[in-house]
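Dear colleague,

Thank you for sharing your sequence with our group. We've completed the structure prediction you requested, and as agreed, I am returning the results in plain text so they can be pasted directly into your records. Please verify that the sequence below matches your submission; if there's any discrepancy, let me know and we will rerun it promptly.
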Amino acid sequence: MDSRPLSPHLQIYRWQLTSVLSIVHRLTGIFLVGFILGLIGWLFSLNQGLKTYQFFTDFMETWPLKVFTFFLIVSLTYHFLNGIRHLFWDIGWGLDLKDVYRSGWIVLT
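Please find the predicted structure tokens below.
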């Protein structure tokens, strides 16, 4: 019997741009749930009155939330642009390997 593994181990797997972009696309989609929760919190604070809204806005001005908001904007931008890339693939455009890598680098820049 052959002693080689059936699939490559992560230690010897050579990462490709396409697989990394796919993984990052999924992770940013999960991260964008934070945007939805923040939006729900903002709407809830609007509904509860001025005091609650002021507490929410003061909380949003702390530096950890500003860092979170920055990464949220980066995630939203990347996820949006990569989603457009996938829509082009759905209609059959840019499926050549050269075009896949080119569009991947365009999304990153």
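Summary note from our side: The two ends are 47 Å apart (CA to CA).

Kind regards,
the structure core
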